[in-house]
Amino acid sequence: MNDPLLVLTTYPDQEGAERLAAELVRARLAACVNVLPAVRSFYLWEGRENSGTEHQLFIKTRDALYPQVESAILDAHPYELPEIIATTISRGLPGYLNWIESSTS
């Protein structure tokens, strides 16, 4: 099995987040993308404290597809420096992990 991967990113508006999610699934770069309701983010940017509303995306994909997922996020994202964090899924329901593999290409 190709290593399953969880990629996290945020998006400033729900419509854009949902559009990105649909594009990733349509392109078979992700088996599933969860778009969470608005969350409040607090962060430092260019030496100043900031806060804003964002939507968290949980992208289920495979390690081999990470470069394409990253590129798709960067192409669609309005931020100068978007959050893109990936972590290997080391354990999970075998059937679900197999589904991630079979649903992506």
Q: What's the Cα radius of gyration?
A: 14 Å
Number of strands: 5
Q: Remind me, CATH topology?
A: Alpha-Beta Plaits
Q: Label the CATH architecture.
A: 2-Layer Sandwich
In total, the number of domains comes to 1
| SS element count, helices | 3
Please tell me the overall pLDDT.
96
Structural class: alpha+beta
Distance between the termini: 13 Å
Q: Could you characterize the architecture of this molecule?
A:
This protein is α+β, with helices and mostly antiparallel strands and 105 residues long. It has a single domain (4-103), classed as Alpha-Beta Plaits (2-Layer Sandwich), CATH 3.30.70.120. The protein contains three helices and five strands. It has helices at 14-26, 66-76, 94-103, and strands at 4-11, 32-35, 39-45, 48-62, 85-88. The longest helix is centred in the first third of the chain and has 13 residues, at 14-26. The protein starts with a strand and ends with a helix. The mean pLDDT is 96. GO terms for molecular function: copper ion binding. Belongs to the CutA family. InterPro entries: Ion_tolerance_CutA, N-reg_PII-like_a/b, N-reg_PII/ATP_PRibTrfase_C. It holds the Pfam family CutA1.
